[in-house]
Write a structure and sequence with these properties.
single chain; 78 residues
Length: 78
Amino acid sequence: MTLYDMAQEYRENTKLLELRVVELQAAQRRAGQREVKYRLKKRVSFLRMLINESRKTVYQMEHYYDRGGQNNAYKQAV
């Protein structure tokens, strides 16, 4: 498995996390109790941190070989 392949898997997982955020936000709007809304908000916040870290990781994997003149090795793997 190449770094590019790994990056694509991370990207797919990030999309799933983003969908979960949308679901939790909808549940937050429907929730009646403040405590439930608060807990859902905290879960969304945590997922957003995971999404951001995942996006950074994808970028680093996709551009790993751009550094140090090894650009050709990355393009051959893609």
